[in-house]
Structures are given as C-alpha cells and as structure tokens.
Amino acid sequence: MKIKGLIIIAAIIIAIVVFTSAYVVDETEQVVITQFGRIVGKPITVPGLKFRLPIIQQANYFPKNLLEWDGDPGQIPTLDKTYIWVDAFARWKIVDPITFLQTVNNTVSAVGRLDDIIDPAVRNLITSYSLIEAVRSSNRELDTFELGMEDAKQEHQRKAYMVATGRDKLTKAILKQAQPKLISFGIELVDVKIKRINYVEQVRQSVYGRMIAERNQIAEKFRSEGKGESRKILGEKERYLKEITSGAYKVAQEIKGKADAEATAIFAEAFGRDPEFYSFVKSLEIYQEALGKDSQLLLSTDSEFLKYLKGYPTE
After folding, report:
1. Do 48 and 73 reside in the same domain of the chain?
2. pTM score > 0.70 for this model?
C-alpha cells in the first residue's frame, strides 16, 4: 500500500516537473532562456514544444514578426520656412533577442527608444528640404488646370512643383539615418513612411485666403470678359440697326425724290398749259403757309401779294 502511494506521489512530482519545464514556441515568437537573470544558451527561434529547467530557468518571449511604430504628429518647419504637421510611421522587428533583452528588455521600452531616434531623424530631414520635396515623389505632369487661370499660373506652377529629391528618397534617407542607431538594441528598422502632411493653422488660413483671392480674380476676369462680350453684342446690334435705318432712309429719300420729280413735272406741265392757273394755285399755298388767324400785314393797294383777293378784272 505504501509502495502504491509512493508511486502516485512520484508520478505527480514528475508530472509537475514536466509541466513546469515544458513551454511552447509559436511561429511568431522567439525565446531567450535566463537562469537567475543570466542568459543561457542561444535564442530559440524554431517553433515547437521545448523544455527548460523548472523553477530556476525562465522563458522570455519576444515577437518575431513585424511590429509597428506610430509617431506623434509634430510641427516642423521646412527649408522654405513653411510650418507643417508631419505624421510618420515605421515598421521594425527584433533581430537579436539577446541584445534586445539586455538593452531595452521589452517592446514598450523599445517603442520609447524608437521615438527618441526616428522623430529627430524625421525632423532633421524635413527641415533640410523644401515643402514640395516632402509632398511629391516625381515630376510627373499634374492635373492642376483651373478655368480662367491657365495662362497666369501654368508656368509658375510648373516651376514650383519641380522636385530634385522627392518624398520616397526622403523617407529612405530617414531610414538610413535612424537604422544604425537601433542596431545596438537588437532592432532592425524595416521601413519608415510619412502618413500625412498638413499645414499648421496659421499657414492654412493664409493658403485659404490666397485661394479665395485667386478665385475672386477668376470671377472678376469672367465678369470683365462678360461685360466686354455684352458691349460687343450691343455694338453689333446698334450697327445692324443703323444699317437698317440708313437703308430705309435711303429708300425713302429715293421715293421722295422720285415723287418730288413727278410733282415738279406735273406742275411744270400745268404751268405750261395755264400759267395763270399755276400762279393762282401757288399763291393759295403761300397764303396758307404765311397767313394765320393772328397774322397782320400792312400792304399797299397795288401789292401783287394779295392780287387774287382783290378779284378778277372784267372785260
């Protein structure tokens, strides 16, 4: 009975020892074994079931896959004195877990070291180049056509948007500057990218004001062109009306001339047939034009003007 009890106790002890000494390494993990705080052996990077001395040895797990670093947006002046907000991010991994354990110990402390190294590198490179270098990556033709400003802005924009370095080379330079400083921590900086660039509030308001002024300029140009076109149309209309009026006046004068000629011919023919009758008719017309109800004439009795009012002589 005692032997059976001892066997059970021994089995329990063995099970506890095996349970406390066994550990599992995942595909995304790497393990460093420490004994009383000292590193024992090489790092374990192959996944599977592993064993260690229970109690006296400890398994320290570190991620083997890519990790993210997301920096805080910061205000940075560019080389052309334009203040912008820059938001950058990076990807990194632990390539030497032993050095990593000895220097930063955990990923939280590692992120703090990344802040201290990547942020200054980003600031240093951004301040060394103009704004357009941090925005554009190539000199491809931009579709910046604006109706009404194509002549005034095209050449200026072409020169302003030309880059010599570009955003891709800029981020590679940030990576190249920061990477050597992280080797001593067992960290490899895989990539650095700029997530977002934006103007600070003061510059943004200035840009908005300039955009409003440009749009007002476009609107004023359209208004002046519209007024010019309106005057042109009105001028064409006036010219057309004058052409119609002058043509009608010409035709009227021609008709009037023909009528006067015919009237003169008729009067001449009448005068030739009966000069006395013609004189009588013309005198009556002159009476009608010259004499009104308020007219007063002082004429002698032998005046020829009123001879038809004296009566005709009888024979």
Report:
1. no
2. no
Q: At what angle do helices 275-290 and 201-273 cross, to 10 degrees?
A: 140
Task: Tell me the C-alpha distance between 141 and 130, whole Å.
Answer: 19
Q: Over 70: is that where the pLDDT of 114 sits?
A: yes
Query: What is the DSSP annotation of 162-193?
Result: --SS-HHHHHHHHHHHHHHHHGGGTEEEEEEE
Q: Is residue 178 within 8 Å of 189, Cβ to Cβ?
A: yes
Amino acid at 216: N
In a domain, 280, yes or no: no
In the chain, what is the greatest distance between 2 CA atoms, to the nearest angstrom?
197
pLDDT for the residue numbered 1: 58
All residues at 6 or more sequence positions from 300 whose CB lies less than 8 Å from its CB, including other chains: none
**Angstrom distance (rounded) from CA 130 to CA 237:** 56
As a whole number of Å, the end-to-end CA separation of the chain is 197
Task: Identify the CA nearest to 144 among candidates 152, 242, 21.
Answer: 152
Q: Angle between the 167-182 and 107-127 helix axes, to the nearest 10 degrees? A: 140
Per-residue model confidence (pLDDT) at position 5:
67
Residue type, 252: A
CATH of the domain at 142: 3.30.479.30
Model confidence band, residue 22 (pLDDT cutoffs 50, 70, 90): confident
CB 30 within 8 A of CB 64: yes
Averaged over 54-73, what is the pLDDT? 89
Domain span at residue 130 reads: 67-199
Domain count along the chain: 2
Would you say residue 188 has pLDDT above 60?
yes
Q: How many helices, marked H, and strands, marked E, lie in the chain?
A: 8, 9
- Spatial contact of 173 and 73, defined as CB atoms under 8 Å apart: no
User: What integer pLDDT is reported at residue 299 of this predicted model?
Assistant: 65
95: which DSSP letter?
A: S
Give 44's strand partners.
Answer: 31
Q: What is the pLDDT of residue 48?
A: 84
Side chain identity at residue 67, one-letter code: L
